[in-house]
Input
Amino acid sequence: MNSYDFVVVGSGPAGRRAAIQAAKLGKRVLVIEKGTRVGGVSVHTGTIPSKTLRETALNLTGWRERGFYGRAYRVKQEIRAEDLRRRLLITLDHEVDVLEHQFSRNRVSQMRGTARFIDPKTLEVEKEDGEVLRVQAEAVLLAVGTRPYRPAHIPFDGTSILDSDEILEIKELPRSMVVIGAGVIGIEYATIFSALDTAVTVVEPRDTMLEFIDKEIVEDFSYQLRDRNMKLIFGQTVEKVEKEPSGRCRVTLQNGRVLTAEMVLFAAGRVGATDLLNLEACGLVADSRGRIKVDPETFQSSVPGIYAAGDVVGFPSLASTSMEQGRIAARHAVGAPSQDPPQYFPYGIYAVPEISTCGLTEEEVQQRGIPYECGIAHFRETSRGHIMGLDSGLLKMIFSMKTRRLLGVHIVGEGATELVHIGQAVLNLKGTVEYFVENTFNYPTLAEAYKIAGLDAWNRMGELKKEPQDALKVSS
Ligand SMILES: Cc1cc2nc3c(=O)[nH]c(=O)nc-3n(C[C@H](O)[C@H](O)[C@H](O)COP(=O)(O)OP(=O)(O)OC[C@H]3O[C@@H](n4cnc5c(N)ncnc54)[C@H](O)[C@@H]3O)c2cc1C
Ligand SMILES: NC(=O)c1ccc[n+]([C@@H]2O[C@H](COP(=O)([O-])OP(=O)(O)OC[C@H]3O[C@@H](n4cnc5c(N)ncnc54)[C@H](O)[C@@H]3O)[C@@H](O)[C@H]2O)c1
Output
């Protein structure tokens, strides 16, 4: 039986970062992956495919040019599912290639197969051809991720009633679609298909969507979606999904309303992929959603030497945060020092339009009783926005009246997921409104929106009263 210092189960963002980190610290590392290719949900069914689909849809429809040429403008008149898939396959090949190369040059061993515990330090790996191997591990990281939640009452058929993995395999673009669940996945796909001119209806049991995002941003976003004829139905659960003899899908809501569409996407959350791990054998128990509880500082589970990171530990379930969690877990597992994670991380929702946010929302600031001021900029006020033909886009910053520090940055519109990092840096470095007022920004850029929003807040906050020798000292 082969033995390793560190065995990683799963090759998604958490697993890959952890494996490379441990290998760089000179450890013997093995990655076990049950999929045919490395990369995890992130590369094969999640982040990368959905973002590639979005980019392809925006390019082929000419979406970004419609501000100039009108809503009917299209780069390619008839867009087919295979047009979207072609670019997807090329992107995925590149991703897998980069990852394979990273593993090989860092001497990370790989094994294809499904891992399960025999005891806390021994794993059994069943390969696709039925061969079974055992490996011994000083420490184990469970980075097994999640899979779509598929309740029994939804008659998934893989062609027109689909989960978010299956949506990537569709043969034809639907003319109409009902999306069940207005979480991040549901909203991203709903808006991508709407950009492809599919008539989309979203059904969500809660009274609103994306509750963790600043309300003003969600309102602006919802207005834009409704303005292009997307239907958003809140406060309604789905009773039944059926297939009509004609092949159309029929969705019956709790209030008796019936929606029909060519396709249904069920996107109401994901569950941890822990069922194959035989967790009892190592002394761990997953919760009802398949998640593993860990120490938030080290990512060690209740069993010493067994770690978990990424989506399998729950919130925030992002590729970006999963990578950091994996690296922290690996460093702790091999006895290397690790820094605390930064207080604020960004959240990027790649809907059409994008939303991105970092720090406190206005609602959170109010709940904490912090006196504050907001600064707002519309992209249409920036010269770059005029050049790009943008008629929407909003950047909002929230500042403390007491310390003048930036508390939160919230953006909806083109480039939001890139722009947010300026605000994130100021936030984590404890910068104040003066940063935006006193610094020069490239012109013409969308980043100029920071300057405009900074000045907007500063005009109402009044000038900083500087002590002559103490100009830069601002209490936190
Ligand atoms: C549609 C969609 C879009 C997304 N978009 C974004 C985005 O834009 N930005 C963002 O930051 N995040 C996004 N996410 C979230 C992101 O994909 C996840 O946070 C990330 O993939 C989690 O990484 P992970 O390392 O936990 O595991 P995963 O990427 O889930 O990979 C887990 C791996 O473990 C393997 N595995 C499971 N069980 C076993 C076993 N017993 N033995 C061996 N191998 C096993 C699986 O085959 C899989 O390859 C998106 C997710 C989805 C579904
Ligand atoms: N851009 C990104 O960063 C990105 C993109 C996609 C996914 N993700 C991650 O993937 C994870 C999973 O995303 P998700 O959207 O599947 O889950 P989610 O939990 O975020 O959202 C699920 C939505 O479905 C609704 N819902 C729950 N049960 C329902 C039911 N029975 N019928 C109808 N609606 C129901 C919920 O109210 C919620 O709004 C998220 O935590 C997210 O962080 C991130």
Summary: The chain has three domains: 2-147+271-333, 161-268, 347-471. The domain at 347-471 is CATH 3.30.390.30 (Enolase-like; domain 1). The longest strand covers residues 132-142. The pocket of flavin-adenine dinucleotide (ligand 1) is lined by residues 9-15, 32-35, 40-42, 46-47, 50-51, 114-115, 143-146, 164, 185, 273, 276-277, 310-312, 317-320, 322, 348, 350 (CB under 6 Å).
